Amino acid sequence: xxxxxxIKNGDHHAxxxxxxxxxxxxxxxxxxxLKEQEASEEVVQEVFFKIWERRNELDISVSVKNYLFRAxxxxxxxxxxxxxxxxxxxxxxxxxxxENEKILSDAVVEHELQEKIITAIENMPDKxxxxxxxxxxxxxxxxxxxxxxxxxxxxxxxxxxxxxxxxREELSDYLMP
Length: 177
Hints:
The protein is 80% helix and 0% strand. The chain is an all-alpha fold.
């Protein structure tokens, strides 16, 4: 009776004999692929576990040695493939996290900037604020602002110039050098 036939019949001793005989060389073989002792041992143990677990389904026509080495090779390659997928997912996940952190950071900075702009505009003198809002938020030309507020075009220009200088000072932390 072959060793596999004995294992198929539930013979613990035959299974243990094969395990003891091939375990060290199979671990070395797996190590050639995985380059890590613990992972190599896990792969070999998993192969033996699957053999025992599926012993009733075994239909092996090659030698015990050939079967075991082929099974360890396939499992090692699957492990490498799994590790590569895991690594790629990790890289992707880290890039998504970095991108989300950047988006969140940008949103926070944008919100802070909006708050700072609003505060700066509110702190302008009333006429200067009114001229600035009509120019920058309502899109009116200097001539239209002057006509609407009863000011000279030169006065509108001065108010805008002063408002822009004031805004540059207030927002200096957010401006590029």
